């Protein structure tokens, strides 16, 4: 099974978890896109009645283009279910997220949900977090300060650039991303607390104790991991 096939499989499986009348959080990234497409198909074909909040402008647009009702957290502050991808999934469902630069809104939407389900292909399962660079979202003005502080912590931050190299990438909230190439994160709780204590940091991509279920697609189909 290719990685894209695995993403499509798990996206479809996650869409089956959604029930009529639910308030649903839509994640961001290529796996979430598969989920949103599968959910959109259910809305169109089965007349499933749901309301959604999305974790990025891109997912908002995609959902609406598929005929889904996508509103703001202001209109729908409590969600039944949030479904999103991840860059790494470690034991206990400790996650690194933010490869798609949406970590801030993703963490907000995940926090508004009763249940957070992660959808990944099996390449995302790791014994320890940290091979994937840890994204940190930073207020523009604070960039030099935060960069120095993260470097002092040995986290090796690099400013994320646009793909064409024309300038720094800006998040949906108009902040910068520093990707920390730190290697294995021995104690994610400690690292999360250290990063959070830096003035100018808006959010980091460590999602700890948030997800309760991971759906993992691989050659054997979809496996469930519980926190
Ligand atoms: C976006 C994210 C994504 O969920 C994460 O990067 C995984 O993306 P993909 O499903 O494309 O591999 O955190 O900010």
Explain this structure.
The protein has two domains: 136 residues, Rossmann fold (3-Layer(aba) Sandwich); 70 residues, Alpha-Beta Plaits, CATH 3.30.70. It contains six helices and 14 strands. The strands form three sheets. A seven-stranded mixed sheet has the order 3-2-1-4-7-13-14. The mean pLDDT is 98.
Any chance you could write out the topology, listing elements then pairs?
Blueprint: H1 3-16, E1 23-26, H2 30-46, E2 51-54, H3 57-65, E3 69-71, E4 79-84, E5 88-90, E6 94-96, H4 103-111, E7 113-121, E8 134-138, H5 143-152, E9 157-159, E10 176-180, H6 188-196, E11 201-204, E12 206-207, E13 213-218, E14 221-226
Parallel strand pairs: 1-2, 1-4, 2-3, 4-7, 7-13
Antiparallel strand pairs: 5-6, 6-12, 8-10, 8-11, 9-10, 13-14
This protein binds ribulose-5-phosphate.
Ribulose-5-phosphate is lined by residues 27-32, 84-87, 97-103, 106.
């Amino acid at each position: 099974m290719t990685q894209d096939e695995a993403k499509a499989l798990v996206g479809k499986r996650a869409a089956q978890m959604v029930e009529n009348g639910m308030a649903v959080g839509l994640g961001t990234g290529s796996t979430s896109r598969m989920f949103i497409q599968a959910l959109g198909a259910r809305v169109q074909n089965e007349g499933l009645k749901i309301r959604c909040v999305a974790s990025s402008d891109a997912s908002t647009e995609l959902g609406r283009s598929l005929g889904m009702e996508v509103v703001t957290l202001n209109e729908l502050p409590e969600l039944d279910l949030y479904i999103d991808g991840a860059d790494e999934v470690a034991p206990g469902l400790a996650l690194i997220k933010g490869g798609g630069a949406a970590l801030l809104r993703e963490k907000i939407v995940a926090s508004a949900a009763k249940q957070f389900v992660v959808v990944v292909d099996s390449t995302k399962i790791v014994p320890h977090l940290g091979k994937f660079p840890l994204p940190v979202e930073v207020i523009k003005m604070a960039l030099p300060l935060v960069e120095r502080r993260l470097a002092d912590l040995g986290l090796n931050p690099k400013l994320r650039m646009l793909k064409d190299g024309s300038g720094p990438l800006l998040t949906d909230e108009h902040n910068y991303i520093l990707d920390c190439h730190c290697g294995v994160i021995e104690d994610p709780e400690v690292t999360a607390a250290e990063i959070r204590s830096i003035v100018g940091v808006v959010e980091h991509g460590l999602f700890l104790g948030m997800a309760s279920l991971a759906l993992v697609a691989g050659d054997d189909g979809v496996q469930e991991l519980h926190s």
